[in-house]
Specification:
single chain; mainly alpha; 434 Repressor (Amino-terminal Domain); about 50% helix; globular
Length: about 70
């Protein structure tokens, strides 16, 4: 799972709740979270700002078990 999705789930937000302030298409955000689409630089910056995480962390993989949960 990518950090972008993990952070969104931690915040308890739906895709639409994140996509609208980041000015992204909900379908593109879903594809990005599944690793099927890469976002441009400005899109990544807007998404990171809405999620409150650094841009470089968006595409990093996080393990769904308890190993990385303290980092979230």
């Amino acid at each position: 799972m990518k950090w972008a999705r993990a952070q969104r789930l931690k915040l308890g937000k739906r895709l639409r709740d994140i996509a609208e302030p980041a000015r992204l298409d909900v379908g593109n955000l879903s594809k990005f979270e599944r690793g099927l689409l890469r976002l441009g630089n400005s899109e990544r910056e807007r998404l990171a700002a809405v999620l409150g995480i650094p841009v470089w962390l968006l595409e990093e993989e996080v393990q769904p078990d308890g190993n990385n949960r303290q980092a979230l």
